[in-house]
Design a protein that fits this description.
5 helices; 182 residues; seven-stranded mixed β-sheet; 30% helix; alpha+beta
Length: 182
């Protein structure tokens, strides 16, 4: 099986039921850019309970074919969360974060398959016209992944917790980059 053969399902995250799983992911050394390295289980529960109660921010788990959770996806309204006051949002803008679960045996192309699935999921909503991301400027690996699915960097911005690279991806750029209809 190759990464091209991967299919995922996406379900809403249950903050209490899934907190233990997420805690292992967000505190893993490979998740340093998630900025929760020192989080306790209670911190993860609280953070995702807040997201669950927020009408402008939603969290989801991505499951592989066997039903095993393999990634976290967050969708947010950049007019109300994360980027408020840092850029002028357009109608149809949707913010996104994703985190791939740590793996004992990495699969080549897996993370690219995940971000492609995340983007396809976001563009399933006809109201989504453009996806916005703001990864840490030092996260070169995610910049390459973002570019691979059609993101174009606009500029660096200063967020309270990091210097970020504000980038955008339209439906057309996503389809052109991946061949996946959006």
């Amino acid at each position: 099986m190759t990464s091209r053969d991967l299919t995922f399902t996406i379900r809403p995250l249950d903050p209490l039921k899934d907190a233990g799983l997420l805690h292992g992911w967000v505190t893993h050394p490979k998740a340093a850019f998630w900025m929760m390295q020192d989080a306790r289980l209670e911190d993860v529960e609280r953070a995702y309970m807040e997201i669950a109660a927020d009408e402008h921010h939603h969290a989801f788990l991505g499951l592989d074919e066997a039903g095993t959770p393999v990634f976290l996806m967050e969708r947010y309204d950049p007019a109300h969360r994360e980027l408020t006051g840092l850029y002028e949002p357009l109608p149809g803008d949707v913010g996104m974060h994703f985190l791939v679960a740590p793996a004992d045996t990495p699969v080549h192309g897996f993370t690219r398959a995940v971000i492609t699935a995340v983007m396809a999921h976001l563009f399933e909503d006809p109201r989504t016209l453009r996806v916005v991301v703001e990864p840490d400027v030092a996260n070169k690996a995610v910049h390459a992944l973002n570019e691979a699915v059609g993101f174009v960097p606009e500029r660096e911005i200063q967020k309270p917790e990091k210097k970020a690279l504000l980038s955008f991806c339209t439906r057309e750029r996503f389809t052109d980059a991946t061949g996946v209809p959006a």
